[in-house]
Task: inverse folding
């Protein structure tokens, strides 16, 4: 059975270059009904496995403010994915790790590919791969789409992670946000969601994400979203606080 992999990352982190390095010429533009954004798919044989790879549009968050963000998020939510590879720029991990935290909160098997590691070394930026992995709870691979460094390591890690149970990585928020999450999760209990997705949907409700609010309302769930005013910004700040602490240990 093929391993289905989604590549996601901020714009301009070398995601498509990494996709090209992983798939070579074995790629094509996917034809998804109702989607005008170009999405490429490709395949790679590795360790006797067929790896099917999708290059999702660049996105900063999983809140669908733009068409690119909507396409990326809906793919991760509704398509069968075995492994998500979040690609972050070695020289701008701060922004890339925010997207990573949003992905791992969905409960999917995740790998962090720190790309342009060769450029980081040129600027004497030293990153500790093992500290990153320990604090984030995911496998971390250093890559360079330009030199080819880490491509085989990434393929090996994809095969390994695909064979393992999903790691439940949880971001712990302040008491008031955790209380709000629990309250929303109780309201969402009538919708069939995994434990991690239930928490993720609850966070998006608290952030007043318009599409998620519409999704739950259309299923008869009654939530007073107005009581969460200002909490979305607080959630974002607490994620960035966590990222700052991790980077102090890993950079």
Result:
């Amino acid at each position: 059975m093929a391993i289905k992999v989604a590549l996601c990352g901020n714009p301009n982190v070398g995601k498509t270059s990494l996709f090209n390095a992983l798939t070579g010429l074995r790629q094509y533009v996917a034809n998804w009904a109702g989607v005008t954004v170009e999405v490429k798919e490709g395949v790679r044989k590795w360790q006797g496995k067929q790896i099917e790879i999708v290059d999702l549009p660049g996105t900063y968050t999983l809140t669908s403010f733009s068409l690119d963000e909507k396409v990326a998020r809906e793919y991760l939510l509704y398509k069968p994915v075995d492994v998500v590879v979040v690609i972050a720029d070695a020289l701008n991990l701060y922004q890339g790790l925010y997207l990573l935290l949003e992905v791992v909160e969905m409960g999917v098997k995740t790998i962090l590919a720190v790309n342009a590691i060769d450029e980081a070394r040129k600027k004497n930026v030293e990153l500790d791969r093992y500290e990153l992995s320990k604090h984030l709870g995911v496998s971390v691979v250093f890559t360079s789409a330009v030199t080819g460094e880490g491509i085989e390591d990434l393929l090996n890690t994809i095969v390994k992670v695909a064979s393992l149970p999903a790691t439940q990585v949880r971001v712990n928020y302040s008491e008031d946000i955790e209380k709000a999450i629990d309250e929303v999760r109780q309201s969402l209990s009538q919708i069939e969601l995994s434990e991690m997705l239930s928490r993720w949907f609850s966070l998006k409700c608290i952030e007043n994400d318009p599409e998620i609010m519409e999704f739950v309302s259309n299923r008869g769930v009654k939530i007073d979203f107005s009581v969460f005013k200002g909490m979305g910004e607080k959630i974002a700040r607490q994620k960035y606080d966590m990222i700052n602490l991790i980077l102090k240990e890993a950079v």
Remarks:
- The mean pLDDT is 91.
- Residues 231-250 form the longest helix (20 residues).
- The longest strand covers residues 3-9.
- The radius of gyration is 18 Å.
